[in-house]
Amino acid sequence: MKNRFGNEALGDISNLDENSEVMKSDNRRRVYGLGNRLWHTDASFQDPPGRYSMLSAKVIPPVAADTEYADMRATYDALDADTAELHRLYLDADLRGKGTGRALVGAVLDWCRAQGVSRLILWSDTRFDLAHQLYTRTGFRRTGERSLPGDVNETREYGFEREV
Description:
By secondary structure, this protein is an alpha+beta fold. It folds into two domains: 1-70, no CATH class; 79-164, Gcn5-related N-acetyltransferase (GNAT) (Aminopeptidase). Helix content is 23%, strand content 16%. It has helices at residues 28-33, 72-78, 100-115, 129-137; strands at 83-86, 119-125, 141-147, 156-163. The chain has a four-stranded mixed β-sheet, with helices on one face. The longest helix is centred in the middle third of the chain and has 16 residues, at 100-115.
């Protein structure tokens, strides 16, 4: 896909196509990018990590919202050496119910075993019933519920964990 910035070092998570037009609602990249509305990281996990985030808006919505920056190293450091967190798992609607989610969870569990990790945790939006069914079918148990502090959407999440 053509990069509309003309510089491959700049990532684009917007809802604009390569011609700077708003994508149609069924555009695959747009649908995938909707996960960014809940939470995302600006490549802090990559080596080298992203150093800057640039925000630009063509239309400002009438609803107030915050953009917050967090250092994910603190979250990682808070995990004990035997615990890993599956941070996000999104599936395209066309892939649901075909074993793809189970395969992805299996790949994460295999990685945990290879790394000597004995416990896997995750948090999932309370509205994602199909995801909760997947997690339960793959051996997770629900451990609690939380709300995200300062979240203007008042998002609630269920915690899940399982032994690896």
